Amino acid sequence: MGLRLLLVLLLGLCLAGGGAQAQQVRIKDLVEFDGVRGNDLVGYGLVVGLNGTGDGLRNAPFTEEIMSNILERLGINVTGEQFRPKNVAAVFVTAELPAFARAGGTIDVTVSAIGDASSLLGGTLIMTPLNAADGQIYAVAQGTVIAGGASAQGAAAQVVQGVPTAGVIPSGARVEREVAFELAGMKSIRLALRTPDFTTAERIETAINGTFGRGVARMMDAGTVRLDIAGTQMPSAAHALGRIENILIEPQRKARVVVDQRSGTIVMGDDVRISRVAVSQGNLTLRIEEAPIVVQPNPFAEGQTVVVPRSKADIQEEPGIGLAEVPTGTSLSEVVAGLNALGVSPRDMIDILKSIKAAGALHAEFIVR
C-alpha cells in the first residue's frame, strides 16, 4: 500500500460493479444565478495586544502612521512623540459580502499581517472599515484574532507550526450597507453553468420546461440557460428560483484524467476509455563509485604523494512491465487497477499514462499539474 494513488469513488463503483449509473444532481449545485453573487471587501487596520510579536516600527513605518491616526481620532495627540511598541501589527482585513446580506448582519473576516510581525496570536483587531471596489464602506470589522499556527523561540533556536501571521475572526464584521439588487422586479434571469457543457445545459432546459411548461427555459449556449420568470406562474422570482434549484438532473461531463506530479496523485472518471495499445515499461539504473587510493613514497625516499583514481561503473535493469497488450474498449480504471496490482510506482504510472496519451490511445482530456 505504498502507492499514493487516489481514485474517485465513482471509479471504485465502476470496478466493483462493472459500471454505475450516474447520480442525479440538483440544479443549484451546477449553476450560478445571474446577479446572485458575493462581493469582495478589503480594509487596512491594526492588531493590538500582541506579546512582543508585532511589527518592528523601524522596518514598518506605516504601522506607526496608522497607530498615530487611530490615537488622534480618540483625542490623543502624539505629534512629535517617539513610541515604538512591539505589541501592534499592521494588517490587511479581507471578507466576502454574500448576496442578500442585510444591514446589521455579521460576516467572517480574514486578517493577514503585512509587516514583519512574527505572530498574531492573542491579538485584537481595532475597528476597521471594509471597502468594496466602488470605494464605499460596506462593513466594519473588530474582534479577537484566531490565528492558525503557533511559534516558539529560544536563544538559539526557533520553531514555527502553521501560519501564525494570519488568522480569522468568525462573525467579526458587521454589515453597514446593503448591495442594491432588485430580484423581485426581474422578468428573466440567466443560469450560468459552472462547467459549461451543451448536454448538461440541454438537460437543464428540458427539466425546467417539464416542470413549468414549454418556453420557460431556453438554452442560449453551453454555459447559459435563460429563464422566463413570468412563464413560471409563480408569485415572485424568489419562489421560482427556490423551486428550480431543487430540480434533479443527470449532468454530463468530459472524460478527464488529472495528474499531480508532485504528490503522485491520479484522479479520473469512469468514462475514460483507451484504444488497443501495447505497454512495456522498465528502468535502467547507472551507478558510478569512486574509490581513489593514495600512494606515498617509502620512508627516507624521494618522491611525492600521488592519488590514484579508481572508478567502478555498473548498469542494472530493474524489473518492469513486459510487453502487454490492452484490448479495445478497456476502461482506463481497469488498466490503472492492473498497474497498481503489479506494484508500479505512481511516477512510473504517470509516465505510462503520458505515453498512452502521446500514442493517441487515451480518449480523454489529460491534465498534468
Your description of this structure?
- With 369 residues, this protein is an alpha+beta fold.
- The protein has 3 domains: 23-35 and 182-249, Gyrase A, domain 2 (2-Layer Sandwich); 39-175, no CATH class; 256-368, no CATH class.
- The protein is 18% helix and 40% strand.
- Strand 14 (256-260) and strand 15 (265-268) form a beta hairpin.
- Residues 1-20 have low confidence and may be disordered.
Order of helices and strands: HEEEHEEEEEEEHEEHEEEEEEEEHHEE
How many distinct beta strands? 22
Overall geometry:
flat
If strands are numbered along the chain, what order do they take across the biggest sheet?
A: 3-4-5-9-7-6
The Cα radius of gyration reads 32 Å
Count of domains: 3
Low-confidence stretches: 1-20
N-end to C-end Cα span = 24 Å
- Based on secondary structure, the structural category is alpha+beta
Note the main sheet. Answer: 6 strands, antiparallel, barrel
Proportion in β-strands: 35-45%
Helix content: 10-25%
Separate helix tally: 6
Overall pLDDT level? 78
